[in-house]
Recover the amino acids of this structure.
């Protein structure tokens, strides 16, 4: 069962990109969010950030929560897998005096001509109805921050990013495979439904349940909390959307005012 190792702090797992230009277009902003990569290729100018996001994934899933085994890592020690080459990857960045921190990431795996991971792990969940090439799976959703309220905001933004992307790009049904405790948490953020029973997934070293996400209803959920997120991301694509304001008094990542 995955549990957060409290000896591994959120500050330790968050990568810092010291030479990042993410905030060049809006130097006073505190947060930015947008598309980080498509089909395993970093967005222009975000090569260092894309490389660093793999470090965040490894530090969280291997070091902090033990959801992945270390022997499943790529040769370079990162949590990189074959699904990155068919995914749209998103990120949320924080500007601090020590550099740009990657505080949130997620990806949408586009099915194409290969089954999604949820199909392989939960084949009984789909019956005789075949999935289509434009169906997707939400994967590798990570939000980390020292302040709980900001971590919650980052998670909301990640889902808003994906909801902003799916309909305009003609993507279809949206699935996920998650732990039951996370299912309970996400019901306060998006609309989702179980499509199968809880079962042990050896790859994730834990019990998980297959879900389908209702995109229109989830969009209503996110807009009810903040109706500017999805619209801002759609207006900014393919660039970044910016939020908040950095305090000039900041001397550490923990002292940046919202």
């Amino acid at each position: 069962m995955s549990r957060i190792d409290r000896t591994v702090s959120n500050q330790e797992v968050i990568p810092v990109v010291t030479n990042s230009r993410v905030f060049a277009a809006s130097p006073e902003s505190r947060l930015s969010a947008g598309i980080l990569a498509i089909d395993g290729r970093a967005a222009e100018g975000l090569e260092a950030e894309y490389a660093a996001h793999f470090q965040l994934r490894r530090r969280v899933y291997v070091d902090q929560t033990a959801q992945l085994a270390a022997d499943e890592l790529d040769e370079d020690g990162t949590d990189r897998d074959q699904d990155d080459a068919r995914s749209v990857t998103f990120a949320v960045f924080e500007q601090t005096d020590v550099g740009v921190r990657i505080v949130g990431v997620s990806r949408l795996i586009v099915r194409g001509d290969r089954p999604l991971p949820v199909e392989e792990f939960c084949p009984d969940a789909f019956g005789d109805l075949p999935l289509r090439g434009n169906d997707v799976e939400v994967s590798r959703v990570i939000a980390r921050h020292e302040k709980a309220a900001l971590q919650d905001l980052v998670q909301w933004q990640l889902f808003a990013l994906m909801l902003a992307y799916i309909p305009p790009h003609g993507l279809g049904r949206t699935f996920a495979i998650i732990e039951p405790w996370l299912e309970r948490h996400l019901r306060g953020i998006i609309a989702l439904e179980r499509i199968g029973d809880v079962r042990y997934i050896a790859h994730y070293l834990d019990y998980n349940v297959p879900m389908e996400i209702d995109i229109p209803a989830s969009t209503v959920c996110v807009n009810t909390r903040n109706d500017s997120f999805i619209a801002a991301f759609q207006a900014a694509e393919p660039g970044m959307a910016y939020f908040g304001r950095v305090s000039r008094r900041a001397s550490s990542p923990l002292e940046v005012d919202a």
The longest strand covers residues 99-110. DSSP finds seven helices and eleven strands in the chain. The mean pLDDT is 90.
